[in-house]
């Protein structure tokens, strides 16, 4: 999903390098009928964005999961959630 989010931001003119975009993902497994099964994936994004980009970033976040091929492929079997921590940077001189 990070790649899809990054592409969505890029399409909106927001290019973030590795120091400005990151994700921590956690998979949740459950024991079902004696088998360990992946049931949920939660991603937490950390974004450092230009102060004037907040609205565009929020639109990209709101839509990125539905546009992600991996998330759509897994959606029938695995719950997928996300959250984001956004820090705005001051505009340059």
> Fraction of residues in helices?
25-40%
Name of the CATH superfamily: K homology (KH) domain
Total number of beta strands: 3
Number of domains: 1
Overall residue-averaged pLDDT value: 94
Q: What are the low-pLDDT stretches, counting only 5+ consecutive residues below 50? A: none
* Helix/strand order, N-terminal first: HEEHHE
Class based on secondary structure composition and strand pairing: alpha+beta
Sheet having the most strands: 3 strands, mixed
Distance between the termini: 33 Å
- Counted by DSSP, the helix tally is 3
CATH topology: GMP Synthetase, Chain A, domain 3
CATH class wording: Alpha Beta
Architecture (CATH level 2) name: 2-Layer Sandwich
Label the overall shape.
Answer: elongated
Percent in strands: 35-45%
Give the radius of gyration: 15 Å
Biggest sheet strand line-up? 1-2-3
Sum up the structure in keywords.
42% strand, GMP Synthetase, Chain A, domain 3, three-stranded mixed beta sheet, alpha+beta, 93 residues, elongated, single chain, 32% helix
How would you sum up this structure, described in words?
The chain is of the alpha+beta class and 93 residues long. The chain has one domain (2-89): GMP Synthetase, Chain A, domain 3. Helices cover 32% and strands 42% of the residues. The chain contains 3 helices and 3 strands. The chain has a 3-stranded mixed β-sheet, with helices on one face. Helix 1 (2-11) crosses helix 2 (54-67). The longest helix has 14 residues, at 54-67. The radius of gyration is 15 Å and the shape is elongated.
């Amino acid at each position: 999903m990070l790649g899809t989010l990054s592409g969505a931001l890029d399409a909106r003119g927001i290019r973030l390098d590795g120091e400005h975009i990151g994700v921590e993902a956690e998979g949740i497994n459950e024991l079902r009928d004696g088998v360990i099964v992946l049931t949920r994936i939660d991603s937490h994004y950390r974004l450092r964005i230009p102060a004037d980009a907040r609205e565009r970033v929020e639109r990209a976040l709101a839509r990125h999961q539905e546009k992600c091929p991996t998330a759509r492929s897994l959606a029938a079997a695995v719950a997928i959630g996300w959250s984001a921590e956004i820090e705005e940077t001051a505009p340059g001189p």
